[in-house]
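Researcher: Next sequence.
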Amino acid sequence: MNTVGRVGTVRFKVLDHPDARSLWHKIEADFPVEMDWIAQDVGPEAFHWLEAASDMAREDKSPLPPGEGQGEGGGAREPSVATQQAPHPLPLSQRERGVRAAIERRMIARVLDELGAAGERIQKEQERLVKAAAPSGDPRWLDLYARACRLRRQVRLQPMLAKWRQIVFARHHVMGGSFFAYTEAQSDAQGERYFGPGAALCMAELTAEPTWEVRTLIDDPTGVIRDADVSYDGRRILFAWKKSAAQDDLHLYETDAASGETRQLTFGLGFADYEPAYLPNGHIVFSSTRCVQSVDCAGFFTAPARTPLYFQALDADGYMVQSMRSWATLQPGENASCVGCHESKNSAPLTGKNSYALRRGPETLTPFYGPPRGFSFPREIQPILDRHCTSCHNDRMHTLPAGALRYDLCGVLSPIGAEWRYATQDPGKGWEQPDFDASAWKTGPAPLGPNGATRLGFVAKLWIRRTFEVPADRVASQPLVSMRNIGLAEVYLNGRLVAKPGEFSYQFRTIAVRPEAGALRPGKNLLAVHCAHDRGEAHLDVTPLDGGSGARPGSGPGQTAADGKSPAFSLLADEAVDRVALRRWSDAYLALTQAQVSRDASAPALGKSNDLVNWISPQSAPPVQPPYLTGAAKSRLMVLLRQGHYQVKLSQEELDKIACWIDLAVPYCGDYAEAGAWDDAARARHERYVNKRRSMEEIERNNIRAFVEDGQGSARRSADRR
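Model: Next structure:
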């Protein structure tokens, strides 16, 4: 199709797509090369240019009704109010036409600037159009721009014509979409597996025009092909191919460039091999999930092979001074050194004279109070708390920070998902009062909003109210409100404003009602909530809770009441089930990490590093952090315990274990199965992955053994030849 034909096609599509962004994506799909030119030469103004083109095209297609838009004698006049409200498009203003004309001329000027002398002929044609006062929208402008771009394309691709006339590539859907970039899409991935079927291995050949002629070598509409590479002699093509989401994994394949014959190089369901590249000697290097850990090490000591190692520098008290934020693993017989991320860890030269550690020789690692093991809070820390702390710290209704209630243990005063009366128009003054007549309001179950159980569409304001019963013996309870809201909210209890939570909360949060604002009453109580959202997405889900007897004196960190008998926040081993993380957390762990178990399984229990227990985050900033930034040395819990908090005396081993727990970033489980709140299916799935890991380790042991034996045999043969 010639350029004028393309212009005509674009103009036709403009008539049917008044929205510039929709138009952009439609034309981009039909004319990818041409739209790439526009993106280069127009940039963000492309939408304005298309919008103007759309308006001009509709104006040409839909003339004004007879008599409108003309003054006496047929001359132009300003449109009347009636004309402005008519359904047909209005004429573009001179300014709007000028905007589009200026953009078009900048497009052509940008191309001509790059072409220089090669664009002299097109430069003269542009001057003729300007001299002829060709209006904006004249197809000759777009035709001139298209010819200039094709000439620029020839100039740009000229070096490739001489050197690289054939390019191999893989065509596939965009991979990823994950924060962690899990692009290997393993068949048995437990969580994220991004698999977009439909891919091809292709070869593009550059012609003399120049244009690319694409030839499909392998087409797989149900699989994924990626990571194409060509051998140094140009005879073989290497790539990764996954033929099914669940019945295959990425494996390496090789195709003969001349015959098209393809062979599979790696195998194994549950293991992904990808990102291959040829080496000059014909060998292949690639990424694989078969290698469980990477290598990055420091220190001079003998370490167990194939075991994750986590390095920390400790002071004389056993507190962390500095910490790595990833682990390291060495293979059998490997020597490694921490010499920088981009240095060879096996061959970097020594700097200056030998260090003290090198002169002393490799040391043997000393076990930490027992054999090597995963650090388990229930096994290492909880027994210490049981011996020294739980005689006072046993109030299960309270946790940290000081006086905070355990929301998962609070009583429910009105069921989740209960029926509410609601209004989307202002109900008038006094709507929050118990004596207000809301009988005409509609009813529906919570949540209420655009996508709730009660679908309201998009509303800017929402009023809801519901009565609930409170037994006489619970009138002194601390009232709470568990809610999630999109929009600014106001909460009223028995007609009095008791809370104004923040604007957004996509997950449930529990809000304590100000005790001075309104107490519960025996019998009927009224909860009323108003929500306003400026973009019309008001959403509410509310549940009143019974917080028991409220915060007691002495429930702060490390305190008891003045009489020495009132219980403090719980450090018991009693467990709360986290239905999101599928773990059973102890009271002590939840309190020290200041985590709360969600009542409705809307979010996992997430701890917060705090003054009492201050730990390093695995997602902290990459730059080297200053010494003693976090850890046991910065945790007030260690100060309290060393000072003999309430005459409690811990042994050195107990202090060391608590400090180690903090410095290791407060782990709870010593292995993946510990404290799991799993059903039979989850346990079976875990066992399958454990068996997979064991079989993988056995395969690798055999491979290493064969590799070592082959290397020894090669050395003997080399010695015999000498």
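Model: Residues 685-722 form one domain. The chain has a mean pLDDT of 78.
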